[in-house]
Write a structure and sequence with these properties.
The chain is of the alpha/beta class and about 750 residues long. Helix content is about 40%, strand content about 20%. Strand 7 and strand 8 form a beta hairpin.
């Protein structure tokens, strides 16, 4: 039995083991890690026949991605996306602003993605390869770029550069040791680490979770917790480390600390004893297995070189980068998803529609959904005499919103309501974007991504209650004229020849012919055995013939869409070439390779977060006050006295969910009492996805969860509610260097299932 991780092999084939040990490992794989092996998943021949009419609540990145993957995995399904806001896309919002010498791009939400091809980043890459028809408009930040190498923390009235990889290992080691010894931010770190290891503070064996702050102080000391970790968690979660869940947000460290309950060693010694061993989360192995095994009907018969070529381009572009974005910001991703869904006749986008009520009908096995318009001038979303019924509903909105939809409260248990209340808190963040005309506003010594402000910095040094500052221009690609790339345009004659080729190819396309042949064979079988055509309709779903015809229609629509795109380009080229001033020697197309054609400097200041948890709405700063506070902060921290040419602020309310101590247990309760088949109010027909429910705020994690939700829906896994992983303890694999043959090998960590 072999389990892949790069050049990995099954670990227990690399060592001498008894037959009993091998049998125990095999049984563990089958019983506790059923989808760890890449070849373990084979999709059902036809999608879940119960999934005919599906609602997605929430039109942010999770909702859009979920609908996109469902539309590809279950082509015949009718999908409706509901969002109470007039604009779809959620927190992915990018704004282009005109300035004196060009234009700039401001981000109001997430601003970059990480490649992370061994984790959730693989799912973002898969999505990009499907949603962008042509070349993906990436702006990749190299691992050698200052924005990748240099991160700062503000402490003791100055910016302290964090240790990181330099040009050589010797330089890295020398610089790291020097900083650890002389910088005040690290004062007391070594004595505290030594004390924690010599006298490791005990923890009750029954403790199921603790705060990040308590966990770090117990294992590493106050310096690391207060000066470093609090800053990092300000940057990611805008949260208070003394309230966030260590088990949820530091899962590997938590596992190392708890896997050997009999050990009296501290966490550092435990880690040293495991040197050369890393832990791989079973969730990611399972998800990668689903990704590898899922057949996409829209590309299954596409010419192989087209798929490989696009993926090869993506992987090459991301092979040496630490983060990436798009020429028009991250909103370009959500806009592309909206465009793809808008062109699908089976998808309905319903914005400005508030979902008021969900009611499960156990007799019909449907969820009745009631909506109302958030814009009074809009027509009612439920103009029919009865509310629409959906076979499945996927909710990506907050626990508070879901609880309100499930009212009256008697519909869910009291303990489930309490669990929903405990995980319903999110923080407000004021985002302030500023643009300065000077391209050299920051000195070379501060070339980097930006800086964070730890909780240990007092109010006298941080009266603005800032979380950090991002040097936005350093991760936006080339600035000025270099942000525009000029490439020769195809002529009308060339486009005409390409269109004619596509039109001829339409009638001999292998994928189309294969689908037509399958339909003809099914129709022949149905004529010979009339019951055959109804075989898949026992549960009320479409017949096999109907599924194949829907698949063919979508495939043909995709082929026709390619022809229409070329035809449109051809018409535009003819109109352009017909202009009197047309110059064939200057026939170029301009595309962006950088976000800003202006040459100045962008900065982004983040204010608030958990600092404002106890503030009333009337205490929150206005946009003008936030801009003034940001300018004051920059003047004091960076000595910037210039006036910005553009300054904008926006309060993002409840934008980052907070994961409290006990988060996993609360989610397990919601899974069992609200969502799960048999025991839950909605009997497996309601699923959840998104940052509120997955213990992570990253866009990559949202995309991964959306993909998993679509696969679970296609396969008819009603027990996969989006929270099923919380119903049991975390499961891990050990990754170690092979004893022979090179590479790394995996084996189940038996201690993760014996607890």
């Amino acid at each position: 039995m072999r389990i892949g991780l790069g050049r990995s092999r099954a670990f227990f084939t690399q060592r001498k083991r008894s037959a009993e040990e091998v049998d125990a490992l095999r049984e563990a794989l089958e019983a506790h890690f059923p989808l760890a092996v890449p070849t373990a998943f084979r999709p059902k021949p036809y999608p879940n026949p119960k999934a005919r009419n599906i609602a997605v609540i929430g039109g942010g990145i999770t909702g859009l991605t979920t609908a996109f993957y469902i539309s590809r995995q279950i082509p015949a399904a009718k999908i409706t996306i509901f969002d109470q806001r007039p604009r779809l896309g959620g927190w992915l919002e990018s704004e282009r602003v005109k300035v004196g010498d060009g234009d700039i791009l401001f981000e109001w939400g997430a601003r970059s993605l990480r490649p992370d091809q061994g984790g959730s980043g693989a799912f973002a890459i898969d999505l990009l390869s499907k949603v962008f028809e042509d070349e993906v408009p990436l702006i990749a930040v190299s691992t050698d770029a200052p924005a990748s190498r240099n991160r700062f923390i503000y402490y003791d009235n100055k910016l302290v550069q964090m240790p990181g990889m330099r040009s050589s290992w010797l330089q890295t080691a020398t610089e790291t040791c020097y900083k650890l010894l002389v910088e005040p931010i690290f004062n007391g770190l070594f004595p505290q680490l030594l004390s924690a290891e010599l006298n490791p503070p005990g923890r009750a064996g029954s403790t199921r979770d603790e705060s990040v702050g308590q966990f770090i102080r117990r294992n590493f000391g106050t310096t690391l917790a207060n000066n470093l970790m609090s800053a990092i968690f300000h940057g990611i979660y805008a949260g208070n480390i003394d309230k966030l869940s260590a088990r949820t947000l530091l899962p590997r460290l938590w596992h190392v600390d708890t896997r050997d309950s009999d050990s009296e060693d501290g966490l550092v010694v435990k880690s040293v004893k495991l040197f050369g061993t890393s832990f791989v989360d079973y969730r990611y192995l399972r998800a990668r297995t689903l990704l590898a095994g899922t057949r996409d009907p829209q590309v299954e018969h596409a010419p192989a070189f087209q798929v490989v070529q696009k993926n090869h381009h993506l992987l090459n572009a991301l092979s040496n980068c630490s983060m990436y974005t798009f020429a028009n910001g991250l909103q370009q991703l959500s806009d592309s998803l909206i465009s793809a869904l808008s062109n699908n006749p089976n998808v309905t986008l319903s914005s400005s529609a508030q979902v008021d009520h969900l009611a499960y009908d156990p007799d019909r096995q449907v969820i009745n959904l009631t909506t109302s318009p958030t814009d009074p001038s809009s027509p009612s979303s439920n103009s029919a005499s009865s509310p629409p019924a959906f076979d499945y509903v996927i909710s990506t909105v907050s626990p508070t919103a879901l609880s309100g939809m499930s009212s009256p409260p008697s519909r869910i248990s009291e303990r489930a309501q309490q669990a929903l209340d405990r995980v319903s808190h999110a923080v407000n963040v004021m985002v302030v974007n500023l643009y300065y005309t000077s391209p050299d506003l920051l000195p070379p010594s501060l070339a980097g991504f930006g800086y964070l402000i730890p909780a240990s910095v007092g109010i006298d040094e941080n009266p603005e209650r800032a979380l950090g500052v991002i040097f936005s221009s350093n991760s936006s690609g080339p600035r000025g004229p270099g942000a525009i790339r000029r490439t020769p345009r195809q002529t009308a004659a060339e486009l005409e020849a390409r269109r004619q080729f596509l039109e001829k190819s339409y009638h001999i396309d292998l994928g189309r012919d294969t689908r037509i042949e399958a339909i003809e064979q099914l129709e022949k079988l149905a004529r010979e055995e009339p019951e055959y055509g109804k075989a898949s309709s026992d549960l009320g779903g479409p017949s096999l013939i109907e599924i194949q015809k829907s698949n063919l229609a979508i495939y043909e629509a995709g082929l026709q869409h390619q022809i229409d795109l070329v035809k449109k380009e051809e018409e535009e080229a003819r109109a352009r070439e017909a202009q009197p001033d047309f110059d064939p020697d200057n026939n170029f197309e301009e595309s962006r390779v950088g976000q800003d054609t202006a040459t100045g400097t962008k900065l982004t200041v983040m204010l608030g977060g958990h600092w404002w948890d106890t503030w009333a709405d009337s205490d929150l700063p206005t946009e003008a006050e936030a801009i003034a506070r940001a300018k004051s902060l920059l003047a004091r921290h960076l000595d910037i006295s210039d006036e910005p040419e553009v300054a904008k602020a926006r309060l993002q309310r409840n934008c980052i969910p907070q994961y409290p101590v006990g988060y996993r247990d609360f989610m397990a309760t919601v899974h069992k009492d609200v969502l799960a088949p048999s025991t839950g109010t909605f009997d497996g027909r309601l699923k959840v996805a998104g940052s509120w429910w997955q213990g992570g705020v990253g866009v990559n994690d949202c995309i991964r969860k959306a993909f998993e939700t679509a696969v679970a829906l296609r396969e008819g896994w009603d027990d996969c509610t989006g929270l099923e992983e919380y119903a049991s303890n975390e499961k891990w694999f050990l990754a170690r260097r092979a004893e022979y043959g090179g590479g790394r090998v995996l084996e189940p960590d038996m201690k993760s299932i014996d607890r």
